[in-house]
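Pipeline run #58 for the internal structure catalog. This entry was flagged by the ingest filter as a single-chain record with no existing model, so it goes straight to prediction. Upstream metadata was stripped on purpose; only the residue string is passed forward. Reviewer on rotation: M.T. Logging verbosity set to normal.
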Amino acid sequence: MKKHSVLKYAALATLPSICHAAGGNLSNCKGGCPGGESCVGNPFSQPVSDSECSACGKGQYWWPCNFETLCFCASTDEGAPRVPPAPSSKLQVNEELDPCKDVLTEDVFNSIVQPATEEGRALFSYSGLCIAIDIYNRYHDEKFAMMGTEEQILAELASFLAHTAADTYSFSVYRDGQHCANPITGSDGNVYCSPCKEEHYDKQSKTCSEPWIVSGTNYEEFCDTTRTGEQGCDCKNVTMTSVPGYTDAIGYIAASDAFFPRGSIITQWNYDYLGLSLSLTGDKEILCNNPDLVATDSQYAWGAGIVKYMEKMQFGTTGETAHKQVMKGNFGGSVEVLYGDLECPASEWESLAHVDLVKVRVAEVCKAGAALGVYVEMDSCDTPSNCVQCEGLKDLYESCKKDGSCPYCETWTQFVRSSAPTVTPIRVESPSWEDWAANQPPHTSASIFITSSLFSKLAILSVFAISFVL
């Protein structure tokens, strides 16, 4: 047999395995759609049309039906929102518990989320988070902080708040510092930014010594012209603009025109903003027209984090999500999904900022877990299937407890009120506030120095350095 014939038949032999690579018909349309709905495509994820998805409800098991979020059931009525589904954890919705009223009370929230500035307190507010949760859950069958048992919901909230605390530098940063240097608010009430090249940006003072954008220069960052239309917001012609009320403002652009990093877990690039807008509103135009809503409106600031946490998949359109990993009690898996090799393990050769960020992430999950009365494993890959491991995180947690750099981790298990694979619960009820006050780590000058110096170091290293890889 000729060589090319052998290759031809070998290729044909592998075709079934390729078709079944994602496990058969995984689409949201499997089994057919309810009355008034049809199986439609999610072109934001991959270029796919409604006609290509139409057969998924009739038993087709190859592309695009073998990817969970490429085809989904939606109303075909004109103007009806078409919100792509979040990857499923296969858990039942917990209809008995409201995420805010019954689980994350405002007092508990305030013990975890403590912004240092008035702007941070306004943007990362309790009411804003509750609204964001309600909006997201209204549009999605796979819900945030409502899947499974009470313990799983508590673990979800603790993990999510740990990630957001780290990514926003303790809820103090809401726009990328380098790309929105020296921000000012014009007399029209809108924010204007002076983008800065790295060599001219002072990370400590967060100021720019030389304008990047001058007359005749376009700001083209964070906009991929190959992903527009149904796959991303259209790239705008962003040029230097005058700032109402300022006659000497040089090198400024309107913040509402740029897709630079923002949000409780970073949203960046034009395609991220389109996906976020679809997920929270069913309308891509809202955040495409004004991405700065993520830095000015609490529900979008929190919503950006919820969408990333619920929907970012390891391999684009396949793999685990942070949400699915935490539902298995595996905090380390959520770190791996969201940040990958930057933090699992963190290395100064890869990203010096992330060496410290992952330490903050561990410290914050201890703090949030203690406040909520739940324990989450750093690495639980010895038990569940499809577990994702964050290399080095468990060792970091242990060393963190020993050297005192994560004071809440030392007393975390004293507040556990439900069982976890490797922790015997000390309590059977939620800790009282008297218990909490009596058992908090002492705020010695050393512990205060460790915490404050760590965040200061992070701010100096990079404001939103994390954003460039998400």
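catalog note: The chain has 18 helices and nine strands.
catalog note: Residues 1-22, 419-433, 435-470 have pLDDT under 50 and may be disordered.
status: ready for reviewer M.T.
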